[in-house]
Specification:
The protein folds into two domains: 56 residues, Arc Repressor Mutant, subunit A, CATH 1.10.10; 140 residues, Tetracycline Repressor, domain 2 (Orthogonal Bundle). The chain contains eleven helices and no strands. Helix 8 packs across helix 9 and helix 9 runs antiparallel to helix 11.
Amino acid sequence: MNKKSKKTLKSNKLQQISKVAATLFFEKGYMQTTTKEIAEACDISVGTLYYYIKSKDDFPIIFSQIHKNDVDPWEKEVREEMQYMPPEEILKKAVREFAFGVDRRQKMILFWYNASKYLNREQLKDVTDVEIKVVNLFKDIIELGCQKGQFKNSDPFVTGYSIFMLTHTWALKRWWLKRLYTIEEYAKICEELAVSMACGKAS
C-alpha cells in the first residue's frame, strides 16, 4: 500500500470503497474481481480508484488496517477497565463489544477466511497480529479471574481462542444465524458462553 493510501486510510471515501470491495470479493471471489468492477460499483472512475490504491492487492492491507483501527481502542479500553472491574463483568463487556465489531466487519472477516490462501505474508501480518492480540486479551481476563477465584480454567489460551471463534461464527454463519437471532441476542449468548467456558463449565 502506498503512503498516500496510509494517510487517507481514515477518510470516509476509502472506508466506503473498502466496504464495496469487500462485498465484491465475497460475492465474486478475490481473484475474479477486477479494479474496474470495484470502481464501477463505487460509481467512480478507475483513475479515481487509483488515487486511493496502487492495485487491488492493496485491499488486504487496507482491510487489516481498518480491522486494527477498530480493535486497538477496544483493547486499550478493556485493559484499562480490567484494573477495577470484576473479571466476569469485564469478560462479558469485552466479548459483547467484540461481537458487535465482528458484525460491523463481517464482509472483511469473510474475505480473510476465503482469500488467505492467495495472500502473502505482508498482506496477512496485521490481521494475524490482531487475532493474537484479541485472543491474548481474552486469555488475560480469564487468568485474572482465576487469580481472583472467579474462574476455574485449565487452559486460558485455548479458552480465549474458543471465545474468539465463537464471535467469528456470527460472520461465518450469519446467513443462517440471523434467521434465529439479532446481533444483540447473539452477543448476549456469546457473553454467557464465554463466562461458562472461563469457569470450566463448557469448552
